[in-house]
Every structure is written in C-alpha cells, then in structure tokens.
Amino acid sequence: RKEVEQDPGPFNVPEGATVAFNCTYSNSASQSFFWYRQDCRKEPKLLMSVYSSGNEDGRFTAQLNRASQYISLLIRDSKLSDSATYLCVVNVGRAGNMLTFGGGTRLMVKP
Amino acid sequence: SAVISQKPSRDICQRGTSLTIQCQVDSQVTMMFWYRQQPGQSLTLIATANQGSEATYESGFVIDKFPISRPNLTFSTLTVSNMSPEDSSIYLCSVEDGAPSRYYGYTFGSGTRLTVV
Questions:
Q1: Residue A96: which of B33, B42, B44 has the nearest Cβ?
Q2: Of A42, A97, A103, which has the smallest distance from its Cβ to B48's Cβ?
Q3: Percent of chain A beyond pLDDT 90?
Q4: Distance (Å) from the C-alpha of residue A25 to the closest C-alpha of chain B?
Q5: Where are any strands of DSSP class E within chain B?
Q6: Residue of A nearest to B58 (CA)
Q7: pLDDT tens-digit profile of B5-26?
C-alpha cells in the first residue's frame, strides 16, 4: 500500500463545476498536510496547507480527517486555469525530508 | 517565499557521462532537498543536503551515484554520475519556507529535465 494515495484521474469537469479530490495517508504519525499544484512541465507549487479545523482560500477548501486519515480538496466554480495536477503531500516530521508525495490527481477543466 | 534558481533547465546527455545541477537560493536555508520525478510519477526524495556535513540519502540512492555539495547556506549541487537512460527524469531542489506557524510549505526550483541517450 502506498503511503499517500490519490485517484490519478483525470477529472474532466466543465467550467463552473465543483470538484473534490481525496487523499488517504497510511502513517498515523503524520503531522502536517499540504496540497500542491503542478502544471505540465513545471515544478510543484504550494496551493495551501491543510489545518486540522479545515481551511478555505477563495474557491479552495481543504479538510483533514485524522481519524480516517484522509485529506480533501474542494474547488468551487472551476476555471480553465485550474487545469493541473494536484499533489497531496504529507509530512511525518517537521523536517522536510519527511515529506511524502501522493501520485497526484489530474484535473482538466473544459469550456 | 524563497526564490530558487536552478540550472540547467534541461539537458540531453550521453550515457556514461555526468551532469551537475545547481540550485541557488535567495536566502540562507538550513536544509536543501533534492527530488527526482520520473515520467508520469510523483516526487521521490533523493537526499537532504545540510551545510557543513554530508548529505543524507534515502533508501535506493547512494552518494557515488548522486554526489551532493553544500558549500554554503544558499547553494547546493547534485551530480548524476555515470548516467544511463534510466536516469532520465526531472530533478528538483527544494527548500523549506520559513513561516510563523508550523504549517509552512516548501518551495521548489524550476527543475532540470534530463534525457540520457
């Protein structure tokens, strides 16, 4: 079983749709959680951290369920520019070398 | 957040040769991380580079194949040695972004796309 699992997609959605991605992690000692966005042929960029109480940043909402060990990302009112691969990233410890990346979920928003 | 300059952005190399990738950060950072992203895959950590000490390698990666230098707090190099086509990949460096809370993120260099022929 992979340490961080994501549905690879692709998720094909029309503009304006709401789409949700889930991610599960296996290490119960995981301490911090992130969603990164990676455009084709580009480096990953931090989209948002995931707080225990859930957090929202504009059209993006992240949720954490520690009991079930899963993280979610909700995107409302999808834009064409949201098309990318979304990486779920889990940090077991505080140091960066404890980062584990999910395989990514590909989103394609169509007109 | 930190700004990282990574070079080269891409290269095509002959098997058996070596390539050195450089990352320059615009601020001093304690740890720098080197990742590999194989085609269609997610990121895998190669090693952690600390200034003044030897790099720490993850399982499956060895110093002879991926020597790393960290001469100061803003710079690091990764060398891919004695390359084979299996080394064709994107190599990325990363640093931790300082933040007031523990929910910090990590910034990545723009990546080096390596093709070994």
A1: B33
A2: A97
A3: 76
A4: 15
A5: 4-7, 10-13, 19-25, 31-37, 43-50, 56-57, 68-72, 75-80, 89-96, 106-108, 112-116
A6: A97
A7: 999 999 999 999 999 999 999 9
